[in-house]
Amino acid sequence: MERWSSTGAFLLAAIGSAVGIGNIWRFSTVLGQNGGGAYLIPYIIAVFVFAMPLMILEITLGEKFRGTIVSAFRRINPRFVVIGWFLCVIVVLILSYYLVITGWTLGYTVLTLATDAPLFSEFSNSLLPIAFFVIATLVTGLVVSFGVNRGIERISIILIPACVLILLILAAYGTLLPGFYQGLTYMFTPDFSVLADPLLWGAAFGQAFFSLSVGMGILLTYGTYMKSGQHIPRFTLIISLADLFVAFLAGLVIFPIVFTFGLSPTAGAELAFTSLPIAFAQMPAGKVVAVAFFAVLFFAAITSTISMMEVGVAALRESLGWSRVKTTIAVTGGILLLGLPSAMSYSSLALKLDGIKILDFMDETVGTLGLPVSALLFSVTFAWYLPRETLESALGGEDGIARWIIPLCRYVIPGVLIMTTIARIASGLGITNTYLLPGTRYIGLLWQLEGITAIVVISLVLIITACRLRGCNLRKRLGFGSRK
Ligand code: TRP
After folding, report:
1. DSSP state, 4?
2. Whose CA is nearest to atom 9 of ligand 1?
3. Is 206 in the pocket of ligand 1 (CB under 6 A)?
4. I need a labelling partner for 28 at 20 to 30 A (CA). Which of 2, 37, 110, 179 fits?
């Protein structure tokens, strides 16, 4: 059985998984679209009250069960294997398009270094996005094939500190720009009036779960490589703080540039690849800044793609009994095929599905909705079906953090996930205002709706079937019966 070589190595790998494009590009996008500082309060609450307890549960289960996401679900009930594989599929689907964006960051780093930052319209009108997607996928596969020690931890130990260092230098540069204070004010001025908007909360929860990569079995997988008897809550605090720190730091790099050069903070996905290069071109030492910025994006992204691929590789390897290298080759090949349509949608081939670029479609369905649904399945299965005594002893006794974590994971987190998902679907139906959510351009289109509905219906059917097969009494499960 593979093990991290030290606690520090585990922490850096877990931070590597958490810190990704989500922190740098998605965080500033969501912040921009939700009115700047207003968004920070729900976001911080989402991180510490919701994402972190689930993260503690996830790592603890990994460390106790010593298995993959699939075998962890099987331990609770052999029939729950289906849910384990469902989560694996969601992670692999997210990975397939996340790698396309990772490819863009690599492409931009290389092209900026060689000539000038390309215009996104030109870049996405060539075959380069496909080529860089293939390279990013092969790099990810290569690192994973080297294993936990020689691959994953070694790359995280180098790339994560490098990311932070470069961002610190870029943020220091940002303080020299005339738009620095405006950027700072925009980021940190809270507006309490918008807190009543459920969609703002929905956006914050979505981003918190995405950014901490929680509820998808990634941290469970990383937890299995940990030594026993460590203080897991402390680790999750470090991981969450590091993730938040990098997101803030990235905001401090991006917003001063945005305000200095009169760009739009709500530009969304366009920001990193379209607006910022325009600013870089006008800045003193802009080329260096541009290369550094895209390199940070790439470093952050690749440590995340590695963690996602590891989930699939570990699960498949365990069930097929293949070697790590053989499994990784198979998974890499599969992801190349799965991600190709997304990569082609942002190339000269402009592959679309009913007018929507495939990558946007993927992000709007599996990326935005697959995640809460998976986190829901995860928290419900483990917090409800694992005997309370097992949970308590895994969490270090009934008086400790278990007192908080169990009720949070049982009632509050699923409740919030269900509510925000419903709010999202309602916004898709045009019932509420959609402007606050990232990328809701496409919500409301039929395809989009079908995707969402399919995910929700499949999940419900899975849960209900699992309940039935197990002969469980829902009333009792819902807390009306005594279970001690
Ligand atoms: N957390 C990463 C980011 O912020 C992305 C990520 C890694 C992720 N693993 C994930 C997102 C699993 C969803 C599911 O970019």
Report:
1. -
2. 213
3. no
4. 110
Gap between the Cα atoms of 199 and 111, Å rounded: 38
Return the number of other C-beta atoms located less than 10 Å from residue 1's C-beta.
6
Residue 21, ligand 1, Cβ within 6 A: yes
Task: Name the pLDDT band for 142 (thresholds 50, 70, 90).
Answer: very high
d(Cα 147, Cα 237) in Å, to the nearest integer? Answer: 26
- Name the pLDDT band for 479 (thresholds 50, 70, 90): very low
Separation between Cα atoms, residue 318 and residue 395, nearest integer Å: 26
Cα of 211 to ligand 1 centre, how many Å? 6
Give φ, ψ of 194 to 5 degrees.
Answer: -80, -5
Q: Name the band, by pLDDT with cuts 50, 70 and 90, for residue 291.
A: very high
How far apart, in whole angstroms, are the C-alpha atoms of residue 388 and residue 392? Answer: 6
CA 469/CA 269 separation, integer angstroms:
44
The residue to mutate among 213, 214, 373, having the most atoms of ligand 1 within 8 angstroms of its beta carbon, is 213
| Core vs surface per residue 402-418: b (16+ CB within 10 A) or e | beebbebbbeebbebbe
